């Protein structure tokens, strides 16, 4: 297990070593804690991290799921939370997300300010992350909750500029997301363009269901690929 407070360091070292990382996202709204051991037994062997989070789940359910994962796995647990109510002190780290692609200040800074009083009471490793929604061909939950629009797949230059703005603002990770129900994945040309301009580890997720899709994202330049709960159905 990666020692707490060293998760970002490990991701950065993987970048320097050109080692690809893989994470599975578990949405507390979509799993039963009593079945967690069976779910974790189906994780791909190459899984490096477990992300926990969703757009609507509340804190108590996040706590239950994180505890259930801890009881059956030594993999680092990183919170991928939708709002301040989903922070769990039982995880190892949290992606401190700023929704860079939207123009709603609530998810650019206000939620972050609200979370401070909770985070100060935890030992969570806090990882500043620039979160960028890419149009996946279907309105995703994050768009509905945040009342923002994803960046069209055709606007590659804008996506690069947003990613660079995140880097200039001091973010440590860039996360390109097409949404869990995406009809279209983040296009390889977008991944390639962002990777060519940004010096930070690049995470790509949203709608990825197969090993071939993961490999395509890696080839385009993704340093970490995230697969959602769809892995239970689609893993080969």
Automatic annotation (TrEMBL):
Reactions listed under catalytic activity: sn-glycerol 1-phosphate + (2E,6E,10E)-geranylgeranyl diphosphate = sn-3-O-(geranylgeranyl)glycerol 1-phosphate + diphosphate
Name of the protein described by the UniProt record: Geranylgeranylglyceryl phosphate synthase
InterPro entries xref list: GGGP/HepGP_synthase_I, GGGP/HepGP_synthase_sf, GGGP_HepGP_synthase, GGGP_synth
Source organism of the structure: Mesohalobacter halotolerans
HAMAP family per the UniProt record, alphabetical: GGGP_HepGP_synthase
Ligand binding (Mg(2+)): 27, 55
Biological process, per Gene Ontology: glycerophospholipid biosynthetic process
Alphabetized UniProt keyword annotations: Lipid biosynthesis, Lipid metabolism, Magnesium, Metal-binding, Phospholipid biosynthesis, Phospholipid metabolism, Transferase
EC id: 2.5.1.41
NCBIfam families: GGGP, GGGP-family, PRK04169.1-2
Family of this protein: Belongs to the GGGP/HepGP synthase family.
Cofactors named for this entry: Mg(2+)
A single cellular component GO annotation: cytoplasm
